[in-house]
């Protein structure tokens, strides 16, 4: 282990500005090597993630669905309290399956709202908007194809409609918060906070700390879906950056540390090997057993979330969990 040198021979192509190219160039030069889980979600990665959400070990999606289903009327009441109209802004909307539960409830109870799903995947957004338009043709839906920060930027620039007092409710579901580092999390919630007005809300879905074996199994499922999800990143690099990763020479490796609450995914080189990344004109050496760190999935305690709220300009006002207390949907009020 400890191999950290790259043989570099820059070419004009090597200056490619694509975010994936940048990530591969810098991440594979680090020790240990790392690639951000942000790049998991090409079409195939998004498809595998859908399958993961149905895997018996991956309890997160089912737990959150239970919470939203059980507490949808409490949530609707909180969102519209005081007679406000609601701007429901969902960051990382994906297929919106869980959110549809909330939308349906708001719609059927004549709560005035508009739904603003934000996602970096255009396919996911189109699919979501298509099904919403079919089911509720007169619902106001304003999809935004962008990253979270651009969407927040637009939000703060937008003047509020004159029609009625409006409350912004930002939804950040599905334990997406877990894929940020601690400092990214604080930065993220501070930037949301700075763009909201007093009384606005953020609803976050968080995975809770629990028996380590339950968490470890969720990221090491028996069907090998998480393994395929992780390895797909190498397939994407092969395709988009003309690389020659041999997928059979890497394996998925998962750890969960109950002290830090961090599940970590790695790709492990099964032999000493060299990989060519032709679009970057680099050759990357791997020692036998050397890892690429690809994902962090953080698990929280209630105390940590109270601290996060306090540090970022919010107060934690409501806390909803599933019957096993595996997952929580938590309200931060500005
Ligand atoms: C999207 N994100 C919250 C998932 C998670 O649980 O960290 C991604 C995932 N990675 C492996 N399995 C699921």
Automatic annotation (TrEMBL):
Residues 21-333 form the Histidine-specific methyltransferase SAM-dependent domain. Gene3D superfamilies: Vaccinia Virus protein VP39. GO terms for biological process: methylation. GO terms for molecular function: methyltransferase activity. Keywords: Methyltransferase, Transferase. Pfam families: Methyltransf_33. It comes from the Bacteria. Residues 1-23 are annotated as: Disordered. The keyword Methyltransferase applies. Residues 5-21 have a biased composition (Low complexity). InterPro entries: EgtD (IPR035094), EgtD_Methyltrsf_superfamily (IPR051128), MeTrfase_dom (IPR019257), MeTrfase_EgtD-like (IPR017804), SAM-dependent_MTases_sf (IPR029063). NCBIfam families: egtD_ergothio (TIGR03438). PANTHER family: ERGOTHIONEINE BIOSYNTHESIS PROTEIN 1 (PTHR43397). This is Methyltransferase.
């Amino acid at each position: 282990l400890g191999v950290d040198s790259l043989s570099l021979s820059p070419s004009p192509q090597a200056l490619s500005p694509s975010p994936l190219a940048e990530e591969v160039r810098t991440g594979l030069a680090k020790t240990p090597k790392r690639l951000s889980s942000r790049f998991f979600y090409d079409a195939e990665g998004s498809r595998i993630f859908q399958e993961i959400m149905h895997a018996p070990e991956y309890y997160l999606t089912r737990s959150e669905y239970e919470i939203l289903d059980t507490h949808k009327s409490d949530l609707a009441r909180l969102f519209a309290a005081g007679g406000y109209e609601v701007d429901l802004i969902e960051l990382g909307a994906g297929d919106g399956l869980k959110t549809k539960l909330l939308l349906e409830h708001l719609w059927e109870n004549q709560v005035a709202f508009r739904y603003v799903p934000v996602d970096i995947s255009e396919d996911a957004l189109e699919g979501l908007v298509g099904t919403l338009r079919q089911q509720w043709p007169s619902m106001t839906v304003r999809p935004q194809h962008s990253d979270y920060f651009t969407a927040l930027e637009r939000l703060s620039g937008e003047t509020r409609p004159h029609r009625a007092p409006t409350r912004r409710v930002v939804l950040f579901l599905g334990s997406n918060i877990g894929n940020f580092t601690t400092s990214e999390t604080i930065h993220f919630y501070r930037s949301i906070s700075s763009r909201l007005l007093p009384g606005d809300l953020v609803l976050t879905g968080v995975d809770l700390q629990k028996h380590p074996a339950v968490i470890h199994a969720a990221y090491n499922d028996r069907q090998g879906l998480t393994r395929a999800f992780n390895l797909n990143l190498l397939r994407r690099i092969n395709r988009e950056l003309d690389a020659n990763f041999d997928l059979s020479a890497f394996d998925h490796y998962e750890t969960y540390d109950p002290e830090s609450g961090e599940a970590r995914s790695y790709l492990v080189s099964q032999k000493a090997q060299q990989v060519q990344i032709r679009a970057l004109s680099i050759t990357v050496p791997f020692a036998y057993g050397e890892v690429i760190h690809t994902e962090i999935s953080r698990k929280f305690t209630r105390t940590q979330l109270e601290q996060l709220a306090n540090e970022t300009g919010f107060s934690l006002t409501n806390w909803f969990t599933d019957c096993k207390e595996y997952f929580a949907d938590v309200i931060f009020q500005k």
